[in-house]
Target: Malate dehydrogenase
Amino acid sequence: MKACVAGASGGIGQPLSLLLKACPLIDELALYDVVNTPGVAADLSHISTPAIVTGYLPKDDGMKQAFAGCDIVVIPAGIPRKPGMTRDDLFKINAGIVRDLIKGVAESCPKAYILIISNPVNSTVPIAAEVLKQAGVFDPKKLFGVTTLDVVRAETFVAGITGEKSPSKTTIPVIGGHSGETIVPLFSQAKPSVNIPAEKLDALVNRVQFGGDEVVKAKDGAGSATLSMAYAGFRFAEKVIKAAKGEKGIVEPSYVYLPGVSGGDSIHKTTGCDFFSVPIELGPSGAEKAIDVVSSANEHEKKLLEACYSGLKGNITKGVEFVANGPKYVPAPQHRL
Ligand SMILES: NC(=O)C1=CN([C@@H]2O[C@H](COP(=O)(O)OP(=O)(O)OC[C@H]3O[C@@H](n4cnc5c(N)ncnc54)[C@H](O)[C@@H]3O)[C@@H](O)[C@H]2O)C=CC1
Ligand SMILES: O=C([O-])CC(=O)C(=O)O
Model:
């Protein structure tokens, strides 16, 4: 199992790479970034776990070498928010970064599971899908927008109300997209069920939807969530890897291309959104089944979902148009599959 982190020298990239290095399921860990990867790789390589760590920079075809033969690529490359910015404000810079990294994936490891962390996730995942389509290698079951931090926050904030001592033991579907009102936690479908006093529900939903802003504000210009994101990114990557190795019954929400995943069509019909985060059953082929938790949402959650759909559709269209209006990507002959 070869994993690559693209954006490995950053605030998320470094702790995420540490967690991947500590994971015994990984044999090779390639670190790619435009700066500092030789140092980060040298540092991690002294840890006495099986994974062989290598670091690459853009020079000497570094991206190609980092991605070659990868089974899983995790992408936290790009700029983070500062106070006063929305995730969509990051589009201008991060859209091009993700597009170019995905071109590299299409050429060097088109069969890899691709996990996108770079914001705005609502748009960067559609960008990735369009680039992969142009290259003729799009497998919707293997492209994931990482929304696990929203799930992790929901688990944590609910435990703050219920007093649950092991927050991650409660499964809470958080669906939709990954920004503000497009994030919709479905507390009515928590397992085991949770009792949230009515007067606390709105504040709880709002805290999950705007948890990212809480961190951006507290960091006061020094970036956004990095450590909790590394934890969440690793949690999702580890589940994808375990499912790839044949473990059954693994389910975690992720932002996927609904029409391309089994069970996604009916959710697509209800939501009208091509990309949407729902609980996904993972398996060796990737996203094996999208689980419909939308139609069983309660009335309060349905109102939240209405607000989610319109914002999310705009974000998706923006990503798709970015690739459609950009230079058409023609893969080199040797990479046409
Ligand atoms: N999906 C989610 O839940 C979350 C997403 N994020 C997003 O993750 C991204 C990264 O955040 P941080 O790690 O805090 O930022 P950072 O600025 O600390 O790190 C980003 C890294 O990307 C690298 N980079 C820039 N262009 C690159 C390229 N073309 N190829 C390879 N690497 C490149 C930079 O050199 C830097 O090391 C941001 O867009 C942020 O908004 C952050 C938290 C949660
Ligand atoms: O808020 C941000 O910009 C980073 C992020 O996506 C999160 O923490 O959920």
In short: The CA atoms of residues 21 and 174 lie 28 Å apart.
